[in-house]
Amino acid sequence: MSATHDVIVVGGGPSGVAAAVELRRRGVRDVVLLDRESELGGATRHCSHSPFGMREFHRVYLGASYGRRLQQEALAAGVDVRTSHSVVRLGDDGELLVSSPQGVSSLRGRRIVTSTGARETPRSARLVSGDRPLGVLTTGALQSYVAFHGLMPFRRPVIVGSELVSLSALLTCVSHGARPVAMLEANARATAKQPLTWLPTVLGIPFHRGAEIVDIQGRQRVESVTLRRGEVLTSIACDGVLFTGRFTPEASLHMLSGLGIADGSGAPLVDQYGRLQNPLYFAAGNVLRAVETGGWAFREGRAVGRAVAEDLSRPASACQPVRVHFDAPIKLVVPGLVSSGDRMAVNAFRHFQLRMTCAAVGRITLLLDGLPAWQQSGRWLPERRILVPMPPGAPDAGRISFVFEEKA
Ligand SMILES: Cc1cc2nc3c(=O)[nH]c(=O)nc-3n(C[C@H](O)[C@H](O)[C@H](O)COP(=O)(O)OP(=O)(O)OC[C@H]3O[C@@H](n4cnc5c(N)ncnc54)[C@H](O)[C@@H]3O)c2cc1C
């Protein structure tokens, strides 16, 4: 027989810690927080730079100290923290299979919150051809080398990508003795906002827009890469390649366990309370939608924790939510479900969060039962947060959809 806990939170990054602490604050007695790493903090604890924690703790932390603060918050709130515990299966009935140094065991939760974060797309999934030398990494791997082993694996890498995390990669390089020889962005413009994207220029590092890496050369270590700009191929000498960003939700647990993931986001589908179609399960943070900041993940975790605390006061009942529909170039909408019955006092999600697959100019309209409830025209950029307030009438609608009309 496995022990039954009030709530089990899977993943101890900002969103999982915030959910667990909020549950304890709201009087939930038995909250277990599981993380596969040896300490809490999630992706933040690998970051040797700031800014973290401004909104939630009103001070600026470096990533590693922010991670420690999260761990202190969880312990001080009386959360039962179990690190080095990997969840390997999520059962339909709330039973989790957990692997730890003590072996494999089962735990059962009356409710489960998954907050397993997101991961960057590595070389293999980007289909970059060529040799397989040492020195090809993602930002997360680089930051682990630096933070936990004091190692800098290259001196003159090429950085691929121009998201916020790409700038984090750039800062990690320059603050640890490496000098990137170039930054590359496949699109015509940088993904992160100005003035952040001025950073490479300020540091004197060439920033190639509209350039894609197509091949890596090197016998043992990386020696050069081939870039394609339109039809033109050029070679850059370097000793490493840093693939940054293009995050995808860490949702393999949901997929393998049969809870399912959505097209577009690659994430579990939740309703306005953060609840999956299986009403024992909730989710928060970057597992819902790659990718947001630490502060955003924290607030989302807290809001979902509040909803779970309320939900615990009644039996879990299967909800029949309405699916939110959308068309390209809209890439994802979170929440992707809206429940009507069984309402809670406050939504965990007060907005629909949208992302686009590519830059587009035109009008986004939210339709409830075919009638416009919100619309806005503009130039929409990929990976930028778009927030649409959830109308009070959304839970009563039989059909909810977002449509995009391109400006001629
Ligand atoms: C390189 C980098 C730089 C960044 N820089 C900044 C910055 O400067 N400022 C900022 O605000 N944000 C920054 N971010 C973003 C921020 O780190 C994330 O938004 C935040 O960590 C997301 O929190 P989360 O709780 O959703 O997920 P994560 O922090 O990713 O936490 C997920 C946790 O789940 C655990 N987990 C996953 N699967 C399992 C499993 N099966 N069993 C048990 N545990 C599991 C993982 O070990 C991890 O601890 C950065 C991110 C990266 C990668």
Please tag this protein with its features.
9 helices; alpha/beta; binds flavin-adenine dinucleotide; 408 residues; five-stranded parallel β-sheet; FAD/NAD(P)-binding domain
The radius of gyration over CA amounts to 22 Å
Specify the overall morphology: globular
Q: Report the average pLDDT across residues.
A: 94
Helix content: 10-25%
Here the CATH topology of the largest domain equals FAD/NAD(P)-binding domain
Question: What this model shows, in words?
Answer:
Helix content is 21%, strand content 32%. Helix 1 runs parallel beside helix 3, helix 1 (14-25) packs parallel to helix 9 and helix 5 packs parallel to helix 6 (164-175). It folds into 3 domains: 1-120 and 247-316, FAD/NAD(P)-binding domain (3-Layer(bba) Sandwich), CATH 3.50.50.60; 123-243, 3-Layer(bba) Sandwich (FAD/NAD(P)-binding domain); 319-408, no CATH class. Strands 1, 2, 3, 4, 5, 6 and 18 form a 7-stranded mixed β-sheet that branches. It has 9 helices and 26 strands. The chain is an alpha/beta fold. It has helices at 14-25, 54-57, 63-76, 123-126, 139-149, 164-175, 199-202, 252-256, 294-311, and strands at 3-10, 31-34, 80-82, 86-90, 95-100, 103-114, 118-119, 129-130, 136-138, 157-160, 182-185, 207-209, 212-217, 224-229, 232-237, 240-243, 248-249, 281-283, 322-326, 330-334, 337-338, 351-356, 360-368, 371-380, 386-389, 400-406. The structure holds flavin-adenine dinucleotide. Flavin-adenine dinucleotide is lined by residues 10-16, 34-37, 42-44, 47, 49, 51-52, 86-87, 115-117, 139-140, 143, 165, 168, 250, 253, 285-286, 292-295, 297. The site of flavin-adenine dinucleotide (FAD) has 37 residues, from helix 1, strand 4, helix 5, helix 6 and helix 9.
